[in-house]
């Protein structure tokens, strides 16, 4: 049966009368099985009829039938759904009847009517425009407006009254009153919001009075909330002074906030989307409460429709720093209300973590197993990502590729091993395989796999001999590999069940190793096994060499060594060997004959031998009764007074002889390095226990030879090894051996220099243990050192103190250390006795400790500073010297080259540009020993200075009387400048000489300046003398040519001052940077190091030679004038005077400086020094007094 559901709706009023409409929903048309719902609008002109109409429809007897247009219809039900009352022009206030609700489609458009009833049981009316065509209220269901999820809106409003502390106390009466009144007003105002539940005051806060309250209702639009806010004052006492412009609403659970992707990795582009069911233009994004501004890395997009708002934030190439809380905020506001939608998400960014795997792999290319079962590289992550992609890259000399595949969370790469792609010359190189994983959102990570491609090598071995060598012989064994790269090459010698590892220095280049044996012994006999190692691969080859036993030269005894024999008389010659051998040897005697006339009778004849008076007999060190056999050395006898007298005995003691033999065997042993510690311990014990053997120069020399031999063997830097070596040195430099050392220093080979070199070699060959070199002290010697590491950022600064409380400090700057390669060593050794054993010449003495510093790697531009404490403070003139083994025909000597001293109280600081053994030499104080030459210099120079001053004064007084022609004028110009130059030079000379003799410490700068001016003005004197000679030569040879006085003066001044200045400047520019411009302790040009003195001697001698030639020409010209020579008498007189000047000056100055040149020759006789001092001091006074008085007046 049809159902009627009348709906009362709003009817627009178009007249002054109120009109009402009733909409009836009637079900008609009895056309089974169809049913219809009909909305009928009933309009009433008078609202008073509304209730009677409702009552009428309520009392209808239903169902009933009717006929309309010949159609039979049955009305089954009539309900009133919607009632609209007029509310202003063109508007109605519509409400739903009980059991009916507005459809959800129009829920957000419902605006509360201005006149709201406070009664909670009365229906809420909403504004509708007229004419109203629906939709009308419908039966209330779960989908109806206000029937959905209830939300909590946090709201606040301000009361413009003073805040009272009572409002902070929820139990106070004021608090309760405010809460009650406000909640009534809020409930009345917001009850018509869709789905309204309640409005509750949650508290008050200062700032006037802020009211915090919560409204529970269904989703409401901005306009609905704003409209409800406007009507709050209608229900609140005006005394509360509610400020309508301060309503604020925050909604936190009505924003749809999504993040893509769910799993976020570093490098991804992440999209954040916030969407609300309300239009809003104002959107703000926050990261950890900081506003995010749009940029390239943070692009933003906003989409706003009539009912929704959406904001999209993208984060490009996200990093771990982008992790944290993100918040989006939509804001709508007008003058009465601010509505804020908030939503927060926390983002966790993690790296695209690749799980640890085997990163390094060794592959043997020519291994059949590897070629059959190819290696597999795998790259995995810790979770499953369906969109993950992988890319494999190959980088290396050997380009072996593979096939990639995916398996679960891993990508795999199986290598295709091909021997042809791995040639021998490239074996050992590394190919890097890079696995790069990438997500669809841009995150990526990579992992490198280092694959070292190896190849089992083919080794060939050969020898420079067939298969055997005599003991003492030399041979090479060469081992070659077809693989050029290798980690290590080892040599072993297998003899029976004994296998020895060779720790010998071998020549290795690329794929070739050469083992050189200089002196073959029985230790070198056996099968030689050469092994090339590359990672875990070892390839070997072997060859057998037999060393045939043969006595060494030092083990052969010849008796006699040198002797006289009688003709036609049998003489026994013995040849014995000292060796543990049962071999049979063929012996051949070869005698070097020296015939002489037997004009004397045999004077000496006994068991030793025969000989004439004065003959020498040399016998070996052999006593038949001695069970030890013979030892090294010999005995020398001389025939005197018919008997053989023992002239010298160089025989070694048995212990030293055995030590020397063992040392020779050790240095020639293939296991020299392994056996060295035990030998050094034995050497120390025997040397220390039997001090008496050190009283022999032969024994002491032999021990020095032993130390020199074993110092070439690399030794581990362990304390006991270093201690044994240094202790042995300490024993042989003890005070008790001083006389023995004096004897040894007379030999052709300087043993003290050899001992110093031995300690340096030992220090140089020390091999660090655990990257350290321990400090070791052995009474008179101390050793300290360091190993340069990758992180070496400090200076090398070591201080040594002797038992005599003398100190020396060694300092090498950080810059120089950084130039050394990693693993290099710096080792310093201090000696308190050895420096005094080394010979020295002259009056200088070693006045401090001796220090040697060596580095295992040589570097350029090295700089070292050492501070020596003086042993004897009374000695003066310190020199920083080093022991130069090349001096004195390789015997060695002290050399100051490359070092600069600085004396500071009782210390001397030596700055040197090289490394070796350093010390300081100082001389006795000579302040009380002024020698005869000094008196001559001071007195003579004083007289010369006075004479030069007098000469200059006289020249000035008589100048206009003696310069009446050009020739005479130029002569006096030259004489005046010669006098001036000599005066300035002599003044500088006497000042620096007096300062030096008084032992006053001059700064280097003052000394350089003084030397420069002395050099310059002495040269000026010579070049003005040359000008004087050239003027004479010019006037006599070029008679008809006349040059102006100005031109002659210009040439003379350029020659007199210009040339000397150029020479002096070039000299100091060349020698000063190398610190050898001046002599040590004297302010004059250096001779020993740079030969700077030649810059004075050579020009002076050339000028002397030229003036002697000019003098000869002058004499010839004056005595035999040519036909055309027509000079007047005055000119000829001037020329004659110049000639005499040149003739007198040249020999005198030339002789003086010629003798001066002789004084720089080493060990020149003192007579040259005295003669030079005398001539140099008096030449000026004699010459210029002679000139001034005989020619000027």
From TrEMBL:
GO terms for cellular component: cytoplasmic vesicle; plasma membrane. Gene3D superfamilies: 2.60.220.50, Immunoglobulins, Rhodopsin 7-helix transmembrane proteins. Residues 779-928 form the GAIN-B domain. Keywords: Cell membrane, Disulfide bond, Glycoprotein, Membrane, Signal, Transmembrane, Transmembrane helix. Residues 147-271 form the SEA domain. InterPro entries: ADGRF3/5_N, Adhesion_GPCR, AGRL2-4_GAIN_subdom_A, GAIN_B, GAIN_dom_sf, GPCR_2-like_7TM, GPCR_2_Ig-hepta-like_rcpt, GPCR_2_secretin-like. Pfam families: 7tm_2, ADGRF3_N, GAIN, GPS, Ig_3, SEA. SMART domains: GPS, IG, IGc2. It comes from the Eukaryota. Residues 233-348, 356-452, 457-544 form the Ig-like domain. GO terms for biological process: adenylate cyclase-activating G protein-coupled receptor signaling pathway; cell surface receptor signaling pathway; energy reserve metabolic process; fat cell differentiation; regulation of lipid metabolic process. This is Adhesion G protein-coupled receptor F5.
